[in-house]
Amino acid sequence: MKILVINPNSDPVMTDVIRKTAEQFAGGEFEVICKHTPGAPSFIDSYKDESRIAPGMIRLLTEHESEVDGFVIACQDDPNLDVMKELTPKPVVGIAEASMKIASMLGHRFSIVSTSRPSIPNHEVLARKYHLQDALTSVRAPGDEVKNLSEEEKFTATARAAIEEDMAEVIVLGCAGMADLAKRMQENLGVPVLDPVVCGLIIARGLIQVGVGTSKIGRYRPREV
Amino acid sequence: MKILVINPNSDPVMTDVIRKTAEQFAGGEFEVICKHTPGAPSFIDSYKDESRIAPGMIRLLTEHESEVDGFVIACQDDPNLDVMKELTPKPVVGIAEASMKIASMLGHRFSIVSTSRPSIPNHEVLARKYHLQDALTSVRAPGDEVKNLSEEEKFTATARAAIEEDMAEVIVLGCAGMADLAKRMQENLGVPVLDPVVCGLIIARGLIQVGVGTSKIGRYRPREV
Amino acid sequence: MKILVINPNSDPVMTDVIRKTAEQFAGGEFEVICKHTPGAPSFIDSYKDESRIAPGMIRLLTEHESEVDGFVIACQDDPNLDVMKELTPKPVVGIAEASMKIASMLGHRFSIVSTSRPSIPNHEVLARKYHLQDALTSVRAPGDEVKNLSEEEKFTATARAAIEEDMAEVIVLGCAGMADLAKRMQENLGVPVLDPVVCGLIIARGLIQVGVGTSKIGRYRPREV
Amino acid sequence: MKILVINPNSDPVMTDVIRKTAEQFAGGEFEVICKHTPGAPSFIDSYKDESRIAPGMIRLLTEHESEVDGFVIACQDDPNLDVMKELTPKPVVGIAEASMKIASMLGHRFSIVSTSRPSIPNHEVLARKYHLQDALTSVRAPGDEVKNLSEEEKFTATARAAIEEDMAEVIVLGCAGMADLAKRMQENLGVPVLDPVVCGLIIARGLIQVGVGTSKIGRYRPREV
Amino acid sequence: MKILVINPNSDPVMTDVIRKTAEQFAGGEFEVICKHTPGAPSFIDSYKDESRIAPGMIRLLTEHESEVDGFVIACQDDPNLDVMKELTPKPVVGIAEASMKIASMLGHRFSIVSTSRPSIPNHEVLARKYHLQDALTSVRAPGDEVKNLSEEEKFTATARAAIEEDMAEVIVLGCAGMADLAKRMQENLGVPVLDPVVCGLIIARGLIQVGVGTSKIGRYRPREV
Amino acid sequence: MKILVINPNSDPVMTDVIRKTAEQFAGGEFEVICKHTPGAPSFIDSYKDESRIAPGMIRLLTEHESEVDGFVIACQDDPNLDVMKELTPKPVVGIAEASMKIASMLGHRFSIVSTSRPSIPNHEVLARKYHLQDALTSVRAPGDEVKNLSEEEKFTATARAAIEEDMAEVIVLGCAGMADLAKRMQENLGVPVLDPVVCGLIIARGLIQVGVGTSKIGRYRPREV
Fold first, then answer.
1. Which end of chain A is more exposed for a tag (fewer CB within 10 A), N or C?
2. Which residues in chain A touch residue C124, judged by CB atoms under 8 angstroms apart?
3. What is the pTM of this model?
């Protein structure tokens, strides 16, 4: 089994974090290829970014389609997920969709801890798209009051606020680049903390193994060229 | 890794189907124990059945907790899922919840093909509980018009009606005992057909592997004895 | 007319409060039998408790079915309500369902004042089950800041916060054992304060009187033994 | 205890049906006054009718307020319910709200059997207003195919279609004037059939007895004259 | 083209504000008649007010129907909107419905800035009626802490709180009489601020121009006299 | 005032239909520029098409931004609407969003008459995105049974089925290229038939006139280059 993990941005550091996470999860049982998107900006932060990276993402999918068994889109905005699902019968998993659906199985309500306040609306838009607006109790991002803390401390403090003030029972990390924080945050906070990349891999590996992919008869049907 | 798959009923044939499915999915990469529930009826069909099998299910969980890493409840009614989640910090996955959440990732709308018309309301109740009432286009069960067909033909005809009349893009099998039908139905129908037992295992294995379980701070918190 | 009011726990003091409330409501116009559940813990606080008391509750129902005309389950968690509805064509009323549905008729939004913070998720789960999540503005429980007050002062302060901060217009008491507080809290707060036991009796008595019970053709159909 | 049942139209026959129903329900245990609305048309069928009868309904409420303990608005459109709730702290119960909320306690889904097809949208509007759109499986009215049948046969046939085709488990009669049909239809159909007038009385009597009325601090607060 | 703008109250100052706003919007391209409602109170604040002004509003509609091409109801409570839609095939636009629907097109979530706290529930009721409860992040009204400020300062401060604390991206003014504030508040706040009267005119003028009005076959069908 | 109407595809015939519709609506009172999208396919039918036309649409917006006052995206899939809203503070109106929101103001429920069955899921996706899933009663497309009819007859027959079987009170045309059919279909069907291009222009012209555009502080905030 071989999975292509697409980092929609072009940041080599983030690609490395994602690759390391993915390979560690694969543990040699299946193969993971992790690619950043050619021509992409170093951070995906807007609908324009999403639009601009579509050709690169599609090229990655097309070039690797015969070689791999499925795809993971490794960005918490699930950029271009619908078009990627449309282009192949093989499984394509968005990490936002996967992590929110798994989070909703682990407790009454979950919160997303995001990198920055402006990204909050988009996480809410996705939660609604995936039918989970009532299971999402809040999206929070570190504010100015924690700006002098380390990344890990910032996100931990933000998650703690979600737990205490919004009654979040599960935390979903709001960025693919936070993968290495999940375990330690979980230990500190005492609640499940989901790294979305891993959530995407859980679903993708499973679907591939049982031979199930995207339905091709309706919303994601193939088109003649 | 070791997973206990609990068949909530006591039917040895169904337990065998489930075990075979589970072992085939595990493929030797992890261990699966499959147990029927002591004292359970041969088919779970009512709230009374659910209530009556709770002690047996709890006993199975308690007896195996130290030995296994997670649990799958292998019945499309997700009987006693909340109490099972409450009793252990280890992952407990209901196959109805897992299969509906995975189905919603593979197409616009899914249908559940159930064994009998009287079970329809309960599937709808669960879809709503899991926030997926808008992604579920119908629950269908074979009617009298197909009563002379084989099981496989019956469910295939019912699924086809869901596809054609309700615009279902994905089919979820409505019973743990249908596992061996999924592959052939998928080939015949040309849409993803989900065996719920396998869906449960996909999630359970993933959660175990990354060390995440049910949140224990709120809805499923542990209680002192 | 005779109604069996089942206290799902085994606390004799709470059973007495419930009985007194019920008898006062009945006022001699109909008969009320109030029973605690044999083998139940003194307080219902978990899914496990719910599961564990099912046999006792079922036994109470079965033993009294020929003798009484309907049932009230007197616990704000509505434990085992679905199975009880399934077991008899006679009316079975959960006090959570009855009190939330009545509350939604008396003002724009209601709050539930619960005994303890950990019980909050379950009240939210029930509000959603009964379609009233948008009519429920909050569930609140007394926090540490009021721990030195009397029970009545605590719940009154908590209700006042719901009125002022969450714009609650109606208060639903979150426990069957608070019955004797309702009247005084209503006077102090100037909003309707609903004792759930009485709400359950309002519905049960009415249904019995007009000869209507649970529908037995679908979700709660009887099963052959 | 004394309840004023307001028939929003001026049809003396329908007023008699409602009065008989109400008195039979009261059974001498409380007093029922049943009034038609002065200046109203003989049938309420439009927003204009609703608007036009408001002064008459308000006058009835005002004239009787000191004398009675609560009010029932006996029309399945719940005309002017909000203004009536606003004008008095005493309970005001709309029979549509009461019957739909009670119906949702007796089975998975209910249908409303209405007098005519054009009234269907308004029943749907009310179901949504009362948060019950997901519990309402259909509103049906007799069509041309049954026009030669008796009233009772018509509504029975319509209800049967709702049961068989829409999986309704409970039937709510769509007009206050159908009260005398409920019992026989229930016997014929084998599901609960709710007469809405009686549902309104169940709630009103209960609220009066326990001294609870409409919340006067928000949506229905009193205004200075 | 000629539009009748109905001010449901009788305040000549507010009527003048509305007329000025409407005429400025019309800019001579179409004709606007602006009328206060005969017999109405000077401020609409209750369901009773709504009921009481219905005859006057209906008379205005009837008297002008042959002369004008459409109607705008210029009050943020949309009083009697359904009956007005029912009485004519020509477009009738409520400014609450128009402004909320337009607001939802301009940003992720909007807030309504209302004149007083007691009016908050009704704005929420309307948002739900128009399917926009999830797009409405809050309704706010100036509290005591700003009581010494000018009207403009008050509403600006209230809107700012909605932006900062509720993440509102768009502000809808909660009263037809605030029209002259919209522009300056928009400049100060840096977000779209919608004057509802103008929103109503946008929709009404457009519908008239293309010859579309209220559907007369169902909910708003005409009735024989 | 000048509005750029962007036809997302490259079909000159459809561009002409749209231009004619737009100019007729503008009636010389404001200027309309109508452009097809360079490099686009002749028909937009997939997520891939949407992705592929983004650069052309963005270029059109960028090139004309200083010259025009607002934009209309003239395709019933609202392709790339979010990115277009993000790129300019000037109004950008999607005709799907505009037509559905206007439709919901004209009757109880509306149907979309689409060009082909495979496009149905996407219309449903958009209705949900715009919060109108409960106001949409159906999306229908002509089936094989009408394949020998003219375009106008096909869509009229399909709309009639929506009216009769789904109780649609308003029809929304499912394609920008159907503009010339709206008027005649409305006359034949006796219900409002909305041409979506015109709906988009109604909103765009209105927003421009009052100086309101997309909120730039949250979901559609500008980014530094």
1. C
2. 108
3. 0.97
